[in-house]
């Protein structure tokens, strides 16, 4: 368990399958998604977010559970998704402008290429670390 305080963000999820202690669940798009300024960026609009977790709780398919993901993981994810593209654009712009003495237009074009490459890098990072994100099942909220 983790300590409950005001900084903890918990989500609700529906259990899709149970295989011993390993469960597969889908994050439920709730009211906090609608009030978030980045609504839809994380994929909660149309695409269900499905994860796996290990738990000792007695859960069954259809149960609604409370899940927790550490604040550090959430901050790292936000950094990768939002800050790396900006840093990449700046770096590629400066590379073109200062290192290769390119014109303003070519430096801007190079920064767009940097943005594209950061998108490719984020996609690869997502595929590599997707299975390494560890949710914690806190409790069963509603039996299915």
Write up this protein.
- This protein is of the alpha+beta class.
- It has one domain.
- Helix content is about 40%, strand content about 25%.
- It contains 3 helices and 5 strands, in the order E-E-H-E-E-H-H-E.
- The chain has helices spanning about 30-35, 70-100, 105-130, and strands at about 10-20, 20-25, 50-55, 65-70, 135-140.
- A 5-stranded antiparallel sheet has the order 3-2-1-4-5, with no helix packed on it.
- Helix 2 (about 70-100) packs antiparallel against helix 3.
- It is rod-shaped and about 65 Å long.
- The chain starts with 9 loop residues before the first strand and ends with a strand.
- Mean pLDDT is about 85; it is low at about 1-5 and about 35-40.
Q: Give the % helix.
A: 40-55%
What distance lies between the first and last C-alpha atoms, to the nearest angstrom? 23 Å
Question: Which class do the helix and strand fractions yield?
Answer: alpha+beta
Give the helix tally.
3
Gross morphology is rod-shaped
| Biggest sheet record | 5 strands, antiparallel
Number of DSSP E strands:
5
Widest sheet: strand ordering? 3-2-1-4-5
Order of helices and strands: EEHEEHHE
What amount of the residues lies in strands? 15-25%
* Domain count: 1
CA-atom Rg in angstroms:
20 Å
Q: Segments where pLDDT lies below 50 for 5+ residues?
A: 1-6, 37-41
Mean pLDDT over all positions: 84
């Amino acid at each position: 368990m983790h300590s409950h305080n005001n900084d903890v963000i918990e989500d609700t999820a529906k259990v899709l399958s149970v295989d011993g202690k390993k469960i597969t669940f889908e994050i439920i798009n709730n009211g906090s998604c609608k009030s978030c300024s980045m609504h839809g960026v994380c994929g909660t609009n149309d695409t269900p977010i499905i994860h796996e977790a290990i738990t000792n709780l007695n859960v069954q398919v259809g149960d609604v559970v409370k899940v927790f993901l550490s604040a550090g993981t959430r901050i790292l994810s936000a950094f990768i998704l939002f800050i790396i593209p900006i840093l990449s654009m700046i770096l590629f712009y400066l590379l073109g402008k200062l290192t290769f003495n390119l014109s303003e237009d070519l430096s801007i074009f190079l920064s767009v290429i940097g943005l594209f490459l950061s998108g490719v890098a984020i996609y690869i990072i997502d595929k590599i670390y997707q299975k390494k994100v560890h949710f914690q099942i806190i409790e069963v909220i509603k039996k299915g």
